[in-house]
Amino acid sequence: MSTTRSASMPGEGVADATVHHKSARQRRGLAPPRMQLNLAAMIDVVFQLLIYFVVTANFVVDEGVLTATLPTGTGEAADSLEPPSETLDLRLGSTGDVGVIIQLGGIGRVDTFTELANELDSLQFDPARGRHAFFAPDDPVVIRPEGDVRWQHVVNAFNAAIKARYTNVNFAQPE
């Protein structure tokens, strides 16, 4: 036996557009919920961060403090910006892959860097060491590389000048 329902029963087959759904709070007559921050948890996190930063902070005085002696004077320009008149020129030229030509000022050619150091030492005016030549230890020595001179030769010339106790060694632009 089959039972059929008719469409005339109330609530079936007919769509009611005015049906409103109410939440349980609204049906009980309670006010809508309000959003609240949990301040206790936020204060706990802030205190933990504070403790972390206090523990990890470094309150030691920096070690990298350098004392500086500033120049004294009026700040006026010097009378002449010319370098000292006693300049010792040292020219280095290339002779192929590994060779070098060492030309010392107006003195002449030198074959090795050991001879260069000895020659520079003999050209120095230093009464304490018994040297009475033309150049003071603080006169500029200018190293002038020419052509494709290897950097090692320039460094060797610098080392020879330092070995001869010159204190003002400069490099000129390669020509």
From TrEMBL:
<comment type="similarity">
    <text>Belongs to the ExbD/TolR family.</text>
</comment>
<dbReference type="Pfam" id="PF02472">
    <property type="entry name" value="ExbD"/>
</dbReference>
<keyword id="KW-1003">Cell membrane</keyword>
<dbReference type="InterPro" id="IPR003400">
    <property type="entry name" value="ExbD"/>
</dbReference>
<feature type="region of interest" description="Disordered">
    <location>
        <begin position="1"/>
        <end position="28"/>
    </location>
</feature>
<keyword id="KW-0812">Transmembrane</keyword>
<keyword id="KW-0472">Membrane</keyword>
<keyword id="KW-0813">Transport</keyword>
<protein>
    <submittedName>
        <fullName>ExbD/TolR family protein</fullName>
    </submittedName>
</protein>
<feature type="transmembrane region" description="Helical">
    <location>
        <begin position="37"/>
        <end position="61"/>
    </location>
</feature>
<keyword id="KW-1133">Transmembrane helix</keyword>
<keyword id="KW-0653">Protein transport</keyword>
